[in-house]
Amino acid sequence: MRMRALAVVALVCLAGCSGLFADPRGTDRATLTSAPVPTATEETDTRVLPPGVGGGGDLRLDALVAAHRAALTDRSYVWIERRATARTDGGDVEPRPIRSAHVADEDCYRFWSESYTVRSGMETRVAYNYTEYVTDGVGHTRLQTFRTGEWEHYRLPAPAASRRVGTATARAIRKYLHLPAANVTVSVGSPDGERRYVVEGRGSAPSGVGRASNYSVAAVVDGEGLVRSLSAEYRVPGVDGPRAVIYEFSLDPSDPVTVETPAWVDRAC
After folding, report:
1. Which residues, 6+ apart, have CB-to-CB distance to 149 below 8 Å?
2. Does the predicted model carry a pTM greater than 0.70?
């Protein structure tokens, strides 16, 4: 299994076994150095663990998802979701982007999807190479006609950025981190003085993943509960033999994120 590993120096393990953990490219690239973990009796203003993350490996996903979605609100960031599926005898495979969002604020962002279900009035169809430039609750949409490759343009209602990205990432968090405490390890480190928590899982795959084996997952969570990255790898049966699956997303909070107006839109944020 190909897992991108962050460099780890003296990680403090809170449950299970220690080890290297995966991190999607484009997220926390800094080396995690050791950081003290306050004890239950220590006077501190610092949260010992993020909401929903237990030191014994217990993950309360409702609390983690709620904190993650709250931490997304009213901030700028770049989110990229990637996926790959390939035969296990074909060598390493590089996950390709399938969705992304560049967010300046809640009502000013650019969303892209490799494929997207478009609902316009009574019509519903799947569009490819879908781009949406959102300002003031309106999505200025560009998509390619499947048969001719020509571009079509629409204006559609659009959700706030935190709702759109929060829904997608929450679904992934619930799907890939739904693991028993015995299969989870939580570690803590501090890149550039900012505390990060690393949640690793191995063993039996969550029920939502399907008939999977060789399952492993890792997520990097900050003190607010924002899931900065998530990466899962596993194998599934295929007609011509087992297939390796990689899913990952990265979420990089940045200030500010610049969202340029596309040439095909005459209205700016």
Report:
1. none
2. yes
